[in-house]
Amino acid sequence: MALTENIGIAVKVELFGTPRLAAGRREVELILAPGTSRQEFAVALAEACPSLVGKVIRDDRSGLQEGYVLNRNGLAFLSGDVLDIRDGDSLLILSNQAGG
C-alpha cells in the first residue's frame, strides 16, 4: 500500500466577505479524498469550521447555501457533484451576488 493513498488531497479554502466574518479567519485547510463530492466537501468544512453552518453551509450539510459558489484557484467555477481538485489547490467561496 502506497503512503499517498492514505494522505488525501490538501486544499486551502479561502473565505471572503460573510464567510470570513462568520468563520473569524481567512482560510481553512482541509484534507479531502480524491473524488470528493460537494456534500463531502460541505461536511468536511463544517467539521473544520462549525460557525459556517447555517450561514454559508446548509444546515443539513448537503452543500453551500444558495448565493455562494465554489471556485478553484481563482480560475474556474466548480460545477457538478464531484469536485475536480488537486493537491495544493485553493478553493474560494464567493458570493454570486454582484455588489454595488
Short structural summary:
By secondary structure, the protein is α+β, with helices and mostly antiparallel strands. Helices cover 21% and strands 26% of the residues.
Description:
With 100 residues, this protein is of the alpha+beta class. The chain is 21% helix and 26% strand. The protein has three helices and five strands. It has a five-stranded mixed β-sheet with strand order 2-1-5-3-4. The model has no long low-confidence stretch (mean pLDDT 91).
Could you say which overall geometry the principal axes of the C-alpha atoms support? Answer: globular
Our Rg estimate from Cα atoms comes to 13 Å
Question: What share of residues is helical?
Answer: 10-25%
Across the major sheet, the strand order is 2-1-5-3-4
Keywords, separated by commas or semicolons:
single chain, 100 residues, alpha+beta, 5-stranded mixed beta sheet, 3 helices, 21% helix, globular
